[in-house]
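So, can you check this one?
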Amino acid sequence: DAFTAIETVRIPGRGGLGDPEVHLQALRVDGAEVTALRRTDEGRLELRVVNPTDESSTLTVSDRTGELVDLRGTPTGEGFDGAVSLGPWKIATIALDD
């Protein structure tokens, strides 16, 4: 199980990332390891995960929806409703809805 806490750090007078009213957000990810989390140029949160085992698993991201994208961020046409099956050693990238 993987759990990633995302903290937006703000330095007075220097700006920062994200909503200035939100100082701490949590993203609960289970069934895979998080390898990247970034904000795209379009402002969408993009999550990349890997199943680092030789067995299939189910990736879940609590309370989130979105769509699967390829490694370049191009939509694959497959929606994400909070869970997706990951084969052994599979990488998945999800563009999350706000």
User: Anything to note?
Assistant: Residues 30-96 form a domain with the Immunoglobulin-like fold (CATH 2.60.40.1180).
